[in-house]
Amino acid sequence: MAKTTPSRTISLISILFLLLTIAPEPTRSLSLSLSFAQYRTVVSLSRSLMMRVANLRASRGDVSGSRRAHLIAEKLEKLESGLSLGFFGLTWSLGGDYLKNYARRDLYYAEKYGVVSDLNELLKSVSELTRASSDAEGATWVRRNYQNVLGVSTSLFKKLLKVFAESGTLREAVKVAEIEVVQGGLLKDCLELGSNDLKGLLQILKDLASSGNANTNTNANDWHDL
Where is the signal peptide (predicted)? Predict the structure, then answer.
């Protein structure tokens, strides 16, 4: 099983932030002002989630895993309190790759490949989990549904790799995120926690992806009417 490292998870947070900022061009001025607020929400929820993962791992005697999660949470706290040069450097690289390979597309391709559908499915599953009335009920839910959630997560990353099909920083970042979430144990740990933080993260991404698709369709209709 791949080990979770702070640098890899910061890459994951960075790509989430980038996904928040690449709304279709007609709404770019609005999306940029909103994306920084969304970024802070993503970082805050992620930091809270990683602290809970650290405590979960400590409770079952996984000292090294708990330490790694604590280190990630500490780095996220630094990002939350002030954007670091390392974050800007990575985001610059991701943004340059996007502008080079994807900015000219006239189709909201995340919707085309079913990314929103998978996010909806994951959000539905996590919502069910957070309604568990006890830890025992939640543990039963995870045992019964983990393979299905893992399958949807795997599908999501395959679709993201279709979205970011060109060789470059973005595609590599998606591959790193796939290792962390699917193979690195974060998905299972988050499900075991039954966390509203995970639900909040999925909700943000789903809403923005859906909004982006709607805005693209509206703009296409406007151009058609001219």
Answer: 1-29
